[in-house]
Structures are given as C-alpha cells and as structure tokens.
Amino acid sequence: MSKKVVFQFPGQGSQTIGMGGALATAFPEARQVFEEINEALGEDLFAVMRDGPDDAIRLTRNAQPALFATSMAALAVLCTRVGQTVPTLADFTAGHSLGEYAALAAAGSITIADGARLLRLRGDAMQNAVAVGEGAMAAILGADGAMINEILDVANKTGVVQLANDNAPGQVVISGVVAAVDKAIEIARAKNLRRVIKLPVSAPFHCDLMAPAADVMAAALADIDLKAATLPVFCNVTAAGEQAVDALKANLIKQVTGRVRWHETLLALDAAGASVFIEIGSGRVLSSLAKRTFREKTIANLDNPDDLDSLLTLF
After folding, report:
1. Which of 177, 201, 225 is the endpoint of a domain?
2. pLDDT at 200
3. Which of 34, 52, 200, 223 is such that its CA lies 20 to 30 A from the CA of 267?
4. Buried b (16+ CB within 10 A) or exposed e, 32-43
5. Same domain, yes or no, for 295 and 270?
6. 3-state SS string for 240-307
7. Residue 6 confidence (pLDDT)
8. How many domains does the structure of the chain reveal?
9. The domain containing residue 213 runs over which residues?
10. Looking at the structure, do residues 231 and 302 belong to the same domain, yes or no?
11. Active-site residue among 14, 96, 206, 263?
12. What is the mean pLDDT of the chain?
C-alpha cells in the first residue's frame, strides 16, 4: 500500500461480553491467540470474555488482558489472511492506554504472553492503588483547553484532580479523588457545558493517585525482555513515535500516572503522513475519535469477521 497506515488498538471501556468470540469461531489463528493467553495467565480468560458475567468482564484485572487478547487475535487474522507481517502492512502503531501494550506486541517489541501477564499485573496494581470509593473519573464534552484548565485549577483546591485523557477536540476525561472530581463536575455544569458524565469506573486512572501502580509496573518491566520496535510506536505520554527499548519501557511506566495524549497522538500521526487508520480489536471508539479529528482519512475496523472483506480491499 502506498498510503501510510496506522494500526490503532483500543483501551478500557471497549470491553463487551462475547468480544472475540466470532473471530475465534471463524478463524483458527484467533483461537490460537486466546489459547496462548489462557496458558500465559493460567486460567480460562476467554470463557469469561465469551460468557461473562458482565461484572467479571468489567473488572480491570480481566478487562485489560481481555482487550489485549481480542486485539491480538484480530491482528493475527488480518496478517494470516493477507499473508504478510505487521511491518509490511503498517507504518505506525498506537494504542490508547492499555492498548499501547497491543501496539508494542504488533511492533514486535513484546510477546503476546508477556503482554497478557503484564496487563493482568497492571490491572491489579491500578485497582489496588486507591481504595474503592475514593477515586472517580468524569468525561467533559464541549470545553476548550482554557476552560478545562480553569475548571481544574478551582477543583484542585478540593483535592487531586487531573486531566487523564485528551481524546479529541472538545472531549476529555478527568481523574482524581471523588470530592475534587465532583467539584469539577459542578463547575463544568455551571458553565453550561453540554455533556458532563461521571464514568462507571473502579479507580481513578492516569493521575498521580496511581503512583503505587507505576512502581509495580517499573519493577515488573525491569524483568521483561522488550525488543526494539520494528516500526514507530506512538506512545501515550509523548505523543511521538518511539522504537528504542529504554524509551518504550519508560513510557509504559509513565503512562500509569500520565495523561493519555490521544488527540496530540492523532495530530502527530497526521504530521508523519498517516492517511489510513485501522482500529484492531473490540469496538469503534478510536475510529470515532479519528473521525472527530480528521475529515479526509480512511478509517476502518477489524472487530469481527464481517469487517474483514472490506478491510482486505485496503491491502
């Protein structure tokens, strides 16, 4: 393909009961990925993905490796059906929050087994960093950067609250202690912002309260044999393409407490010449964000077998 292609991988919030099931039914290479991840974790995660219950798949410790598994299975299907490897199909990878692990695996930097084990550990560490009920997150739509800074400056007098995700123009997520997040919501609503939504999450991700989880990941990553990426991985905390092992490891640690600079990442990919954005894994959240950011890009998905025929026409 002459156009530059991005493989992008979704993060938490895209999980659903049954995700990956249609791929596993239709393609042996997808089943093989789920079996590999079950073996790495020493349990049948795929059964939870397939059958639920809903509370189980929403648990951070399950959602993170499950989303990774679905992305890796879908990627295996694409590579097998086209008969090419990721470096010949794509020019860049990027992943939203935990999706960065899938982006690294796609770029040959981390194995599927290590990625699954790290995400199980990451999920547990992030859940345990803050006691249940003490942290919160909220989405704020329709505010510009200056207004968000103004809201956070006032709310921070109540406690820790920070910009967690800058997803697209006018679409951000904040994270912190409950009282400070509630204060930010109150201020935002007083400014007549069109949508302010407290999110149904179990912990305040991507803020300074996650520091204990960052320490856990630093220790775990010290023992993991990452390799240099075969193509640039656009990282959450830098919004820039990285391939060197030291930079990739450092960014995985920083992203636990750091802001997901997704909007900046999309703009950086655009500046690098990317014109085709393919979301690989559960849902279409990242495709929606790309559509909000760009008018003239090719945007596609691979979530289930029905997506495959139209996607293959791009290669």
Report:
1. 201
2. 82
3. 200
4. ebbebbbebbee
5. yes
6. CEECCHHHHHHHHHHHHHCCECHHHHHHHHHHCCEEEEEEECCCCHHHHHHHHHCCCCEEEEECCHHH
7. 98
8. 2
9. 4-129+209-312
10. yes
11. 206
12. 96
**pLDDT interval class at 102 (50, 70, 90):** very high
CATH number at residue 216: 3.40.366.10
Sheet containing 135-141, strands listed edge to edge, beginning at the edge strand earlier in sequence: 161-168, 171-177, 135-141, 195-198
Same domain, 70 and 160: no
- Out of 97, 109, 282, 287, which one is annotated catalytic? 97
Active site residue 287: no
Least confident of 32-41, 58-67, 150-159, 194-203: 194-203
Burial class of residue 123 (count of CB atoms within 10 Å of its CB; 0-12, 13-18, 19+): buried
Active site residue 206: yes
| Residues 121, 242 within the same domain | yes
pLDDT of 2 higher than 80: no
Distance in angstroms (rounded) separating the CA atoms of residues 175 and 8 = 24
287 and 256 housed in the same domain: yes
159: helix, strand or coil:
coil
Give mean pLDDT, residues 169-194.
95
Q: Answer whether residue 69 shows pLDDT above 90.
A: yes
Residue 35 identity: E
